[in-house]
Design goal:
The complex is a heterodimer of chains A (164) and B (92).
Chain A: E1 5-8, H1 17-29, E2 33-38, E3 51-57, E4 67-72, E5 77-87, E6 90-94, E7 103-105, E8 110-119, E9 122-124, H2 132-140, H3 144-163
Antiparallel strand pairs in A: 2-3, 3-8, 4-5, 4-8, 5-6, 6-7, 8-9
Chain B: E1 3-5, E2 9-14, E3 17-24, E4 27-29, E5 34-37, H1 39-47, H2 54-62, H3 69-85, E6 89-91
Antiparallel strand pairs in B: 1-6, 2-3, 3-4, 3-5
Helix pairs in contact in B: 2-3
Classes of the chains: A alpha+beta (164), B alpha+beta (92).
Amino acid sequence: MSGEYVRVDPTALSMSSADYARLMAATLEKGAHFRFTAPGFSMSPFIRDGAVLTIAPAPVRIRLGEVVAFVRPQCSKLVVHRVVGISRAGYLIKGDNAPEPDACVIRASIIGRVVKVEHSGKRMHLGLGMERTVIAFLSRRGWLAPVVWAGWRVLRPLVKGWRA
Amino acid sequence: MVFSPSEDVVAREIEGEIIIVPLVAGIGDMDDELFTLNETGREVWQLLDGTRTLAQVAEELTGSFQAPEGKIEVDVLGLVTELARRKMVVAR
């Protein structure tokens, strides 16, 4: 017999979404943060494909607009989306770029909340501050994409001007 | 001497393997280095509960592995020394 530990490349591990959720939950239970690369476009434009997210333990009371990690009840899949509604039934959660909400989940289904977003090594602030409430409001009504697009059309010439 | 997993790691069995995530500055970083234990390492890890001495760990493993007890003790000591060096386990 020979006991060995092996350093592994995380990308080489074939871990399922549920495995990630278990490791995340175990890490947050210790009061630590959990950092990982999130694939997908469902939170675009505030969280882009390949962004590195830092998840912290969620407080007892989660606020409107916070971006949370939870396990989707129907398929046990780990999802990181925004709270767009709070009711007695639970938390209504939806991806910023998704057409429909995921589900209304109870507090126990929420593992943690996003406290930091990094993309290409830069910290992204937009979407996690006070503006999150407005984003949640617009997202729930399906107005987020048109508003962001209109805003981008206005801002794009200015951004180009600054860069020039 | 008895050993148990450090407070500075998170370990979970996933698909038959123990995955160990070191907590560095309070962050478990999945994009940084992770560790796995092979089957034998997993057996050792599960017995490092802060109550068994390394001799007791080796003795328990004798029933599971076809190897002389002396060899098992040496292997257990070697693995635990490495894990302790990496601060994945701590002496109690």
